Amino acid sequence: MDNIKYTLSESQMPTAWYNIQADLPSPMPPVLHPGTGKPITATDLESLFPTTLIEQEVSQERWIEIPDEVLSIYRQWRPTPLYRARRLEKALDTPAKIYYKYEGVSPGGSHKPNTAIPQAYYNKKAGVKRLTTETGAGQWGSSLALAGAFFDVEVVVYMVKVSYYQKPYRRALMEAFGARVVASPSDETEAGRRVLQEHPDSTGSLGIAIGEAVEIAAQDEKTKYALGSVLNHVLLHQTIIGQEALAQLEQAGDYPDIIVGCTGGGSNFAGIAFPFMEAKLRGERENLKFIAVEPAACPTLTKGKYAYDYGDTAHLTPLVKMHTLGSSFVPQGFHAGGLRYHGMAPLLSHIVELGIIETRAETQLGCFAAGLKFARAEGIIPAPEANHAVKAAIDEALRCKEEGVSKTILFNLCGHGHFDMQAYIDYQAGSLHDTEYSSDEIAMALSGLPIIN
Length: 453
Hints:
Blueprint: E1 5-6, E2 16-18, H1 42-45, H2 51-58, E3 63-65, H3 68-74, E4 82-84, H4 86-92, E5 97-102, H5 113-125, E6 130-135, H6 139-151, E7 154-160, H7 161-166, H8 168-176, E8 180-184, H9 190-198, H10 206-218, E9 223-225, H11 232-238, H12 240-252, E10 258-262, H13 267-281, E11 289-295, H14 300-303, E12 305-310, E13 319-324, H15 346-353, E14 358-362, H16 364-378, H17 386-403, E15 408-413, H18 421-428, H19 439-447
Parallel strand pairs: 5-15, 6-7, 6-9, 7-8, 10-11, 10-15, 11-14
Antiparallel strand pairs: 1-4, 2-3, 4-5, 12-13
C-alpha cells in the first residue's frame, strides 16, 4: 500500500530525551558570567531557572527521563504524524522521496509545547508562581501560555512589537490561555525604556524582548525566566520529534539521506536532526546530510561571527559562544518572526563549527512561493518560519530530478500558518518584499562584541 501517513501509538512514544552532548567529539566552550568573564556556576543561574533545568543544561548524560506528568500532557497530541509527501513529489516530478514530520497538530500549533510543558512543570515543582518570556511570531508565547494554564503558573510574554501588531490572533491565543502580553520594547522595564529613548519607533527584536523578560525575572524570587529556543535544555526537550521520526521511518522501511530544518534559535532543527545525528557521530551514516535554513534578512549562521556574545540587547544574560550578528542588531520586520534572532543556539553553533551541518539562507518571497506550492499539493499551510524548510526540501528534490537520482528527504514542518494568513494575503497581493541584511548595521553590531581575554 502507498502509505501517506505513519503513526505511532501513545505506548510507542519516547520516554527519554536524547542529549547529543554525550556524543560530541569535543565539548562546547564554557558559558561565561557577564560581569566577571569567568565560567558561570549553577548558583549564578538560580535567579533565572529552577535547579532541574540548570542540571539539564550542563548534563553529559545521553538519555534524560521524561517525567510522567509531562508524558501525560504530551499525549494530548503526541506522537505526531510523519507524512510521505506523495502529492508534492508528483507535482515536482521528482524521483526523490519526501517525508515531513508535522508538529502543527499541537494545541499551540507548533513544536514549541515540547519544551514549554516540561519547563512549566519543573518551575511549578520548584514553587515558582510566575514565568516571564519573550516571543517573536507568537508560537513560543502561545505554547508557554498553554503550559502555564496546565500547571497554574502566571505567564507574562514580551512580544516583539512588529509581530505584536502583525499577528493579533497569536496575541489573542496567548491571552485566551491566560497570559499577559506586552509589546516590546515597553516602558515596563529599564531595558525597554532605554531602547525607546534612543529609538522611539523601534519595531523590537527578540534580543530586546529577552532583556525585558530577564530583567523582570531577576527582580522577584518567585518569578523565573523561560526561553523557547537557544539553550541546551530547550534543544534537549525537542529531540522527541526526531526519535518519533526514526521509529516512523522504520515503519516505512526507509531512512533519510537529507534532513532539513529552519533555524532561528535552533530548537526545531535540533529536534528533528539530533536523534539522526547520533548515528553520524558514531561513525555510521557518514553520508547523511543536514541542512539548516535561515532567512536572508537575519543570516546568523551564514553571515554571522562565531564569538562570545550576549543573548539579549540589554546585556543581562550570560555570555555564550555562538554564531551571532551582534546583540544590538535589529532585523527588519519580515514575517518569519520566530527566526528574527541575532544569535544561534551555542550547541548548534558548535556542531556547525565541527563541519557536520550545511547552512543556507533563503529570501522571504522564495519561501512563501515554496509554502504555497506545498500547501496546494499537501493541503497544509505552513507557518512562515516552516516555509524555509519547505523551500530547501523542494530545492533538494529538484536537484535529484536534475541529477536523475532518488534520495530520501526528511524535513520538520514545525508549525501551521493559520494565524499568519495576513502574511499570505500580503504575499499574493504583491506587497511583500525581500529584505537583505544590512552589512553596515551588522558591522556596527559586531563591533560591540564583548572582548574576552
